[in-house]
Records
---
Amino acid sequence: MSGMTTVLISGASVAGPALAWWLRRHGFRPTVVERAPALRPGGYKVDIRGAALTVVDRMGLREQVERHDTGMRSAHFVDARGARLATMDAALFGGREGDDVEIMRGDLARILADATRDVEYVFDDSIAALTPSADAVEVSFERGPRRTFDLVIGADGLHSNVRRLAFGPESAHLRSLGHHIAIFTVPAEFGAEGIELMHPAPGRSVGVYRTAGAPDARALFLFPSPPGAAERRDVAGRKALLAEAFAGAGWLVPALLDAMWDAPDFYFDAMSQVRMDRWSTGRIGLVGDAAYGPSPASGQGTSLSLVGAYVLASSLAAAPGDPAAGFADYERRMRPFVEVNQSLAERNLKGMVLGSAAQIRFQTTMLRLMPRLPGRERMIRRVTEPIRRAATAITLPEIPAPRGA
C-alpha cells in the first residue's frame, strides 16, 4: 500500500468511532458507514472499567465520560406486591469499584462521534457486497456508489453484516446462552431518579431504572428464550412474545407491558456470544461485538469494544503495508483478554435470573443481612474480584508515534 491507508468501518456505535479515532491518530484515513440515518440515541447503561478506562484516558475523553455518569445510587429488590426485599449500593450491584464509570450507551456513542468530526461518516447506508483482491477491497453499498478501500473492518455488532459477508452465516458464530433480553423506554414515573428497581421471579427478572437527569426511564426484562423467537423478526411480533412470556406476572409488569406498545426504541434479542476461530480474512477484519461479543450478561461488551479498537489500530500501525501481520498481532494480544471476559457471562447470568423461589429468598436474605455480617468486605471482594481481574487482563501496547512525527 502506498500513501495514506484507507479503511472502511461498518458501524457507528462504540467500537466503530473508537477505531476511527485511533486509526486517524496513526495516519490512516477511516470512513464510517452506518445503516441508521443518524447516531442512535438512548440505549442502556454500560460500564467502562479496567483497561478500557486507560484507553479513554489516552483519548483524552475521561472528563467527558465522567460528566455523563448515570448517577445511579442504589438498587432495590422488590416482590410481586412491590414490597422491598433488599437494597444494594448501585456500584456493588453493577460490579463496579474505584474509577469505574457507568454511562448510557447513546451518550458514549455521541462523545466518540464528536471526537471524530474529522472522519467521514456515511449514514443511512450499508455494505451490500465485498470483493477483496490482493491489495484492496471493492465495496458495493445499498445506496451509495461503489468504492474501493485498502481495509474493511466490521464494527457492526452482534448481527454483523460484514461478518456475514466475509465469514459466512451468523449461525456458525453465535452461541446462545439460553435467555432473551428486552429493553425499552418507559415514562419517567415508572422510575425514581438514581434508583434501580429489580423484581426477581423464578426463571425471569424485570428491572426499571431512571438515570440522573433523564426525562424517562428504562425497563429491562430477562427470561428463558421462548420457542419461535428466532423466527419473529418484526417488532410487533417480538413485543407479543415478551407479553406472552410475562403474562400473569406481578409488580409493575402489566403496566410496563402496556407502555411497551408505544416504546419507540424496543430492543429484543437472544443473549448470545460471538465465538470465532479468527477475526480477519485477507484485508477484512472484525472488532468489538462483531468479533467477540460477550453478551450483556458479561457487563464487558463496551470495554472489549474500546480496548479492541485501541489494540487493532495499534497493531495495524505497527505493521505498515502488512495487514495480515497487523491482524495477527491484534488477535494474539486480544484473544486471552476476550476469553476471560466472555467467561464472566454464564457466571453472572446465574445471579441475574434465579431458578426458584427458594434461591430468590436466599439471595435477598443474604443481601439484606450483608451490612451486618462479619467478613462483609471479603464477601464484596468475591463479587467484584472476578470482574476486576477480567477487566485488567491485558497489557496495552504503547502508543506508537503518529506517522510523519
Note: The longest helix spans residues 323-342.
---
Amino acid sequence: MKTVYLVRHGQTLFNVQHKIQGVCDSPLTKTGINQAKIAREHLEKQGIQFEEAYASTSERAVDTLELLADVPYKRIKELREWNFGTYEGEGEHLNPPLPYEDFFVQFGGESQAQVEERISHTMEKILSETSASHILVVSHGAAIANFNRHWAHTSRVGKPNRIQNCSLFKYSYQASKFVLEEIIEHDFSHIQ
C-alpha cells in the first residue's frame, strides 16, 4: 500500500483579490508562505517524510511544495488547475453557480468532466509508476475537489465544502484504488 498527501497550494495574490485563477498564476502571499510553513510543522511533528514529490507546473504549487518538504520533485503539467478559458484573471463574481459542468468550454476552458478525468488519470499514473510508498503532490482547489469527487465512492471521510489552502488530503492507494483516509486542516487564524 502507498500513501499520498494531496495538498492545495498556499494563499495567493489572486485568492486575496478574488480573481479567477486556473491556468493563470499569481505568487504566494506572506500568509500563503506561512500556511505552508504551518503545514510543514504538522508533517514534521507527525514524523511524515516523503520519498517522492510532484507539483503542478504553476509557480504557486511549486513554491508551496518547496516550503513543505526538502525532497526532489517533478513538475507535471496535468496537475494544474481547471482551465477557465477567457475567464482567467477576471473577478470571481463572474463565476456561475456550482456545479460549473460545461460552462467554461464556451470560453475556451475545460469542462468539469475533463478536469476530473485529467487529474484522476494523472494521479493514477504517478502512483502506479512509482515504487515510493510516501508521496507528496501539490495541486489546486478545483482539481483536488474533482479528484475527491472521482473517488468519493471509496472514501472514508467526506470532503469539506471549501478546500482550504495548504489542507492535506491523505489517501491510501492499493490495487488501482484511492481511499481518502483523512483531511488535515490547520488553524491559520493567527496569521490572517
Note: The chain has one domain: 2-131+146-191.
---
Amino acid sequence: MVKGKIPDEEARERLILWIRRRMAEFGITPQALADSIQHDLDHRPLYRDARGNEWNGQGEMPDWLRAAKNAGVSPDFFRIDPTRQDAAASSKIDPRQLDLFF
C-alpha cells in the first residue's frame, strides 16, 4: 500500500457514507431518488448542446435552444440521435452500485 493512499474498498465505503449524509441533510429519500431516475428514463432528452444542456421537448423551450433558434440555427441541429440513446439505455447497471442508496 502506498503511504497516504486509501484502499479502494474503504474509499467506496466513505463515499457511500458521504452520499447518505448529504441525502439526509437535504431530505432526499431513496424513493424520491428512484422516482427521479424513473422520470428521467421515461422522459429522455431529445435535444442537447455542446455544454450538456438538455431538453426533452416538453414545456417551454429552454433559453439555450431559443437563443440558437433566434440566431438561425435549426433546433434539429441539437436533436439527439435516437439510436445512440437506445444503445445507452440498454447498457447494464453495475450491481456494485445498487447498494449506494439502500
Note: The first strand starts at residue 47 and ends at 48.
---
Amino acid sequence: MRFLLRISGLIDAVNDGIGKLVYWLVLVAVIVSSANAVIRYSLHYSSNAWLELQWYLFSAVFLLCSGYTFLRNEHIRIDIVLGRFSRRVQCMVDIFGILFFLFPMAILIMWLSWPMFWDSFITKEMSSDAGGLIRWPVKILVPAGFFLLTMQAVSELIKRIAFLAGLIDQPGEKMHSHS
C-alpha cells in the first residue's frame, strides 16, 4: 500500500503542478479578451482567431484543471447530505462514485474523443470561420483533461482505501501516514 500511496503522491504532484501552471491561462484569457475588445472598438478591427483563442484558453483551463479541482476537493458534491455522515461513510460513497460513475464516464469520454482529435490532427482541420485557428490543439484538450481527471481519481481512490484501512489520517487533505 505504501507503493500505491507514493504513486498517489506523484499523481497529486503532477495535477497540482499542471493546475498551478494552467491558472496563468486565466490571466492570458483576460488579456486576450481585453485586447480584442479594445482593438475591436477603437480600431474597428476584429479577428475570429482572437475569439477562438479565448475559447481555446477557456477550454484549457476547464479541462486541464479538472484533476486539480478533484485533488483540492473543490468539485461539485452533495455535501449537504453527505456532510451528515461519518468520514468513513463519506469515503465509501466517494469510492462508489469513483468506481461506478467517474471512471466509466471519464474513460468513455477519453476513448470517444481520441479519434476526433486524431482525425483533426491528421487532416490539419481548420476552423470554418474566416481567419480561424487550427482545431487539433483544442481537441487534444478533451482526452488530456479526462486523462488527468482519471489519474486523479486513481489517486483519490488509493487515498480513500488507505484511510479506510487506517493507514492515513485524511484522504482529502495532505497525507500523514501512520508509521
Note: The mean pLDDT is 91.
